[in-house]
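Lab manual, section 2.4: Encoding a predicted structure.

Procedure: take the sequence of the chain (467 residues), apply the prediction step described in section 2.3, and record the output as structure tokens. A sample record is shown.
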Amino acid sequence: MTNKFFLPSLLFILVSCSDSFDIDVSFGSSDSVYQGIDNAFESTYIPMYSQPILFRSANIYDGLGGEFLNYDLLLSDGVIKEISKSISAPGVFVIDATDKWITPGIIDIHSHMGVYSAPGVSTSSDGNEATSPVTAEVWAEHSLWTQDPQFALALKGGVTTFHVLPGSANLFGGRGATFKNISRNTIQAMKFPGAPHSLKMACGENPKRVYGNRRQSPSTRMGNMAGYRSAWIDAVEYADGMNESNEDRRPKRDLALDTLMGVLKGEILVQNHCYRADEMAMMIELSKEFDYKITAFHHAVEAYKIADLLADEGICAALWADWWGFKHEAYDMVQANVAIVDQARNGTGCAIVHSDDPVGIQHLNEEAAKAMAAGNRAGFNISKAHAMRWITSNPAKAAGIIDQTGSIEIGKDADIVLWSGDPFSVYSKAEKVLIDGAMAFDINDPKIQPITDFDLGIIQPQKNRIQ
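Recorded output:
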């Protein structure tokens, strides 16, 4: 991050928080006691209108480590239809992509857009329900403002999908959800169809500071651990009670315990804010005590110290390229952090470059480039095709949507970006961004550049506001 936005970003963060790699992201048990729990606030997303499009002579990074030079790409019916040379498709709309690059749409696994919307005023600061250490009952989507102008700015940076999390004030901050980056009037119309919820957990300094300053528990790291364990004990008893065949013996429905029960059943994915290596290892032990799975550690500044352990456990690490030092637990950083996690256990680690920042999300491609360069300086041999996974397929795995998006493969959602040049260059721009095969953004067509109602009448909405 550059110095000009370090201080406001610092204040925000204090309160907000490999080819062979595989992760079990199964969810949605068919034998739930209350089907309404699973179906509440479900997605009503409908793709925008799209026409068949043929990109000619493009250079392609597929998001899985593959590089294809001078290839054609055919999109139709909202999905990727064909990837080869000299595709024959009479009558379709053709885009000349000579000397340009196509990548999967960028996915940000850690965003607070919509819950910390712009402008940053207290009346729209809705990401932390900082009233109790355990607020697993809240859902980030119930705070999300669809008119947040940050969505359109992220789209201009090639972001087609993003996962919104509550902040990190609490031990259990609540549920996160995944969204397609399209303009809609309702939250459900933006929700990624079929994507699982997540549970935001936070370890370390944030919860003990927030509640310790109020002279209540937790005020120490051991208080944090006791708080997690007590909540999981309640969740186990609740889940057992919900399995009672006699309905009269089942406990009263509890929103917080619904969420924790969903984790225990493998339906909700744990996204765990955690900086220090020792605390990540402790959280892994906690997950084993209560038999649940951690999907990813977020902001994991010291992940490089336990990279092999993370690879062994199949846990992703969502990381900044070079942001560190803004508080004590974020001091012990190395710039090769992303690369070390990625290359652990013969390249089976799962590294993700995330933003946690409304400006950083606008250039995640450049953040990945910085992480790749740092890794190569440290002696790793990481190609651009490989590094592309850090902002495409790996976050798709961590969000539980890899079967639908995150890579350029036949049959997947046609979420792609056409770049003016090398996508890892600071001089390249996202020229066209397609979501489900529909043109969501075109840098050369003002009519295909989203403008929110909030923008109108306040600023000149067509001006270039990418920072």
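Check your result against the sample. The radius of gyration is 22 Å.
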